[in-house]
Amino acid sequence: MTLACPNCHEPLPPEFKVDPTYSYALTPGLVHVLRKLAVAVWQKGANDVHLEDDGHLTYNEQSSITKLRFFGLVAQVVMAGDKKAKHWLLTRRGWRFLNGHEPVHEEVKVQSNHLVDRSIAKKYIAAFPTSEYPWLQSVFPYEIDEMDFYRQGVLPLTHSTA
User: Fold this and answer.
1) How many domains, the chain?
2) C-alpha R_g of the chain
């Protein structure tokens, strides 16, 4: 089978390789990691969590952070134009999802570390009950007003593209 360029439809050379597309579903395990990150943000009082030192995430949980990024729930902290290794923050969408105010796509498709498609179906946090943190049920327990974080300078007042 000869591959063609999606733009000009010219045949591509035989050595051309198409990167695989990966599908990631929003699972209870991913939501568990998101909740742990939210607890770490709350405990630290700053929306800049080091995954090991502040978040106390296991290696497997740390690996899940990137998947949460594709759902728009977390982002890597950037200081002076450089990404800080193992430092992540909850996005506005992440806060709204945890508070039960916004649903998130059930599944995303990723190619070459870029989001290429999302499912139409969405889920609210209530679809992911938890027993490990009984006080952290479908709504984040403290109903955090994210504007408090902006007023305190914990979150930057930037336009969200999420």
Assistant:
1) 1
2) 18
